[in-house]
Amino acid sequence: MHSDRRQTPLVHLTRFLAIAGTLILSLAVNLTHAQTTFDVTVLAGACANCHGTDGRSPGAIPSLAGRSESVLRSQMLAYKSGAYPSNTTIMNRLAKGYSDEEINALALYFSQMTPTLSVSKTGDK
């Protein structure tokens, strides 16, 4: 006897939903992974607004470049927790936006920089 191999619309729909569900799940996993990784240089770029390019302040605000990693970390965590008076700086509001992982990465990043830029003299013989 010959069996009818035609597939019903329900079979097609079931296969389509299974494939679509797999694709959506793999996308969700990839997006979750992308959100948990970050580029510390992008985070550090926000610090340049007050602390100067690459953490080297040209003015009264302290430079970050070359400072101790543990000091930078403890100060950022203190700002984040509200340990510093709220009316003295904007840092307590900014620090609340960083995860502890991001604070650790920023502290390490700035601690590994040289405190000042080396100036090359051009035209010297």
What labels would you give this structure?
single chain, 125 residues, mainly alpha, 5 helices, 56% helix, elongated
Task: Describe it.
With 125 residues, the chain is an all-alpha fold. 56% of the residues lie in helices and 0% in strands. The protein is built from five helices and no strands. The protein has helices at 9-36, 40-51, 69-81, 91-95, 100-111. Helix 2 (40-51) crosses helix 5. The longest helix has 28 residues, at 9-36. The radius of gyration is 26 Å and the shape is elongated. The protein starts with 8 loop residues before the first helix and ends in a 14-residue tail after the last helix.
Q: What is this entry, summarized?
A:
It is built from five helices and no strands. With 125 residues, it is an all-alpha fold.
Mean pLDDT: 80
The major β-sheet equals:
none
User: For the CA atoms, what is the radius of gyration?
Assistant: 26 Å
The general outline is elongated
Oligomer: single chain
Helix content: 55-70%
Q: What separation lies between the terminal Cα atoms? A: 99 Å
Sequence-ordered SSE layout with sheet pairings:
Blueprint: H1 9-36, H2 40-51, H3 69-81, H4 91-95, H5 100-111
Helix pairs in contact: 2-5, 3-5
